Amino acid sequence: MVTPSSENCNSYLHLGGLRTALYNYLLAKSSNGSFILRIEDTDSNRFVPGAAESLYNMLKWAQILPNEGYGIGGSRGPYVQSERRHLYQKYALELVELGSAYRCFCSPMRLEIVRKESHKTGYTAAYDNRCRWLTKAKSDELLSQGTPYCIRLKLAEVPPWQDTVYGSVYHAVQQEADPVILKTDGQATYHLANVVDDHLMGITHVVRGDEWLLSTPKHLLMYRMFDWRAPVYAHLPLLLNTDGSKLSKRQDNLRVEELRRAGHSARTLINLVLGSGFRGRDQDTIYSLDQLVDMFSLNCVTKQNAKVDMDRLSSLSQADFIRSVSDAAEKSDTVQRLQSMVREQFGDG
Predict the structure, then answer these.
(1) Are residues 39 and 169 in the same domain?
(2) CB–CB of 167/177 below 8 Å?
(3) Is 68 in the same domain as 86?
(4) Which of 249, 303, 307, 331 is catalytic?
(5) Tens digit of pLDDT for each residue in 171-228?
(6) SS3 168
(7) Domain Glutamyl/glutaminyl-tRNA synthetase class Ib catalytic: where (predicted)?
(8) Distance between CA atoms of 43 and 22, rounded to whole angstroms?
(9) Are the C-beta atoms of 102 and 151 separated by less than 8 Å?
(10) Containing structural domain, residue 231
(11) Nearest to 82 by CA among 183, 154, 152
């Protein structure tokens, strides 16, 4: 079994990202498999300098250690998507040659007009698939003239598929606008990049947030077009605030780095996010990573959106502190951690 943690460079690691990485890690380790860390940086407009290094450091601090990947190396690299552009371009053009994708020469101005007209008529698709119907001769002519283009996937119906958490899922993806898989600047979108990376890296299981649930037919369609074997998918329900609103990456108090700085241990945060939407564990018990590996199963993941009760964080931290100072093997590390926190807060004086 091989699972990925595909971390986005558009933000720092937050509790939702920690949960996804944790589930992929536990799934791999519970099956004696491999856990790979990949960095997603295809959206250059939202790139956050230093985010990749911070993501790696926070996972390392949490002891969610990959077998290979960013910051470590390995035989399946490179592990940063911007360093794999040539691969995405190769496979995007292969889909064009197969007749499963096409070059779209529509200008930004035309696309904006189409979007506005769609909103007026109540039609949700953001593109009218105009270039899907271009003849090969016309497409070749525009290409020879140097007309900028992106590459879009030709959507088609995908039969119901099995999700490990949600069971049988069907989404009429053929009713959507054909999505861009390779942008005008030559960089891939999430859809193509993750399918190509998962295949080339031998990924067997993918655990990710359910915001990607309805995009999965697009990915399964590409696997079918390439004649590749698709991985097993498991989509995790949303993490919510206690008021029912969705956890946001913009909530700085949910950043792992900030919570660490506030004095919370990695084990506390791991137990907090695992306790949200996972059956079969005592909510008041602090489990070690090794214990969680032994008890982990995707069958224990609930379908219901899970609320993260930040008020429980203090009580979990207290329970973890009592556990750590009571354990001779952990006591020294705990004292050093407290001393480091005091120095960081008040200086060495």
Answers:
(1) no
(2) no
(3) no
(4) 249
(5) 999 999 999 999 999 999 999 999 999 999 999 999 999 999 999 999 999 999 999 9
(6) strand
(7) 10-314
(8) 24
(9) yes
(10) 82-236
(11) 183
Return the C-alpha torsion angle 219, 221, 225, 231, nearest 10. 50
Same domain as 139, residue 87: yes
Pairing of strands 34-40, 101-104: unpaired
Considering 219, 236, 253, which residue would you say is the last residue of a domain?
236
Whether residue 230 sits in one domain with residue 90: yes
Distance CA 330, CA 127 (A): 58
Of 226, 212, 252, give the one whose Cα is nearest residue 97.
226
Residue 187 CA: distances (Å) to CA of 159, 180, 184, 302: 29, 11, 7, 36
**Triad 253, 259, 260: Cα angle to 5°:** 155
CATH assignment at residue 212: 3.40.50.620
**Distance (Å, whole) CA 266 – CA 251:** 19
Same-domain status, 254 and 148? no
Domain count for the chain, please give it: 2
Please say which residue of 189, 214, 236 terminates a domain: 236
Same domain, 92 and 230: yes
pLDDT 10s digits, 156-173: 999 999 999 999 999 999
Are the beta carbons of 90 and 186 closer than 8 angstroms?
no
CA–CA distance, 92 with 153 (Å, rounded to integer): 9
The set of residues, in sequence order, having a beta carbon less than 8 Å from that of 57 and lying 6+ positions away, is none
**Taking a C-beta distance cutoff of 8 angstroms, is the pair 248, 241 a contact?**
no
91 and 212 inside one domain = yes
Q: Residue 23 pLDDT > 90, yes or no? A: yes
pLDDT digits (tens, 9 = 90+) for 43-77: 767 777 888 899 999 999 999 999 999 999 999 99
Question: Is residue 154 annotated as part of the catalytic site, yes or no?
Answer: no
Q: Are 218 and 178 in contact (CB under 8 A)?
A: no
Contacts of 291 (CB under 8 A, 6+ apart): none
Q: Is the same domain home to 167 and 148?
A: yes
